[in-house]
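In response to the reviewer comment on reproducibility (Comment 2.3), we provide here a single inverse folding case reported in full, input and output, so that an independent group could reproduce the run without further information from us. The structure tokens appear first.
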């Protein structure tokens, strides 16, 4: 059984096809799907999907790309969801210094506040980290949490080692299926295997085997995992076993 540790099943690109997508994923061997939220406006939809579909688990948080429209009161709503709804993590949270005209101060404010909520509820976090590895690590050292997952990891080996020291697993998905992604594939091949989890980030980060512009789906995870199996020279079943074990280790409340 595979675990998709990061899938935006609520995304508008999927329309009303979520039931079919979950069924297709289950048939392909994906037994668990973690659905992170990105802003207050989609907390309820994420909660609804997880209530409707067995095997789906929620995370609640405010994504750094959505802080521009966030209000401080959204943190109170987030606290209420974490109190009242089953959640395996606080997420998707973090920092993104790649987007145009980003407000670093506001991003760091919401990230720090959500790390404090993760500590308050003793939950791991799902991290979005883009061109902000060292700043994210600085905040994690300042506000230690119960580990979690550095989603779509694309840092250096040294940064990977620091995340691992802090109790984090590293998420790998469709990006590593591209032969030209040599640095990322080297990480996937050489990092400690007990530090790696699998993800799709569907509908984003489509793998190399999809036509250009096609949406990623959770059911593609085993084919993405086949790249990791090839890079590690291990049977696919062993990759499934170890990465699923790692996901449960990172997300203790994942059933």
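Designed residues, in position order:
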């Amino acid at each position: 059984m595979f675990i998709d540790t990061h899938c935006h099943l609520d995304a508008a690109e999927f329309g009303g096809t979520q039931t079919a997508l979950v069924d297709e994923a289950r048939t392909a061997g994906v037994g668990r799907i973690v659905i992170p939220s990105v802003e207050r406006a989609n907390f309820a939809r994420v909660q609804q999907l997880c209530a409707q579909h067995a095997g789906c688990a929620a995370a609640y948080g405010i994504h750094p790309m959505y802080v521009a429209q966030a209000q401080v009161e959204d943190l109170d709503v987030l606290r209420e969801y974490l109190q009242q709804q089953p959640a395996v993590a606080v997420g998707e949270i973090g920092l993104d210094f790649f987007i145009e005209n980003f407000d670093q101060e506001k991003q760091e404010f919401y990230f720090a506040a959500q790390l404090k909520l993760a500590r308050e509820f003793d939950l791991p976090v799902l991290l979005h980290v883009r061109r902000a590895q060292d700043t994210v690590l600085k905040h994690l050292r300042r506000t230690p949490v119960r580990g979690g997952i550095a989603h779509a990891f694309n840092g250096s080996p040294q940064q990977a080692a620091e995340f691992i020291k802090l109790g984090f697993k590293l998420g790998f998905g469709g990006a590593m299926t591209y032969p030209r992604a040599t640095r990322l594939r080297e990480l996937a091949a050489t990092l400690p295997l007990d530090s790696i989890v699998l993800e799709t980030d569907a509908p984003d980060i489509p793998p190399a085997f999809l036509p250009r512009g096609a949406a990623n789906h959770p059911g593609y995870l085993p084919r993405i995992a086949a790249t990791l199996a090839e890079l590690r020279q291990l049977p696919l079943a062993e990759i499934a076993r170890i990465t699923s074990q790692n996901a449960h280790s990172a997300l203790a409340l994942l059933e």
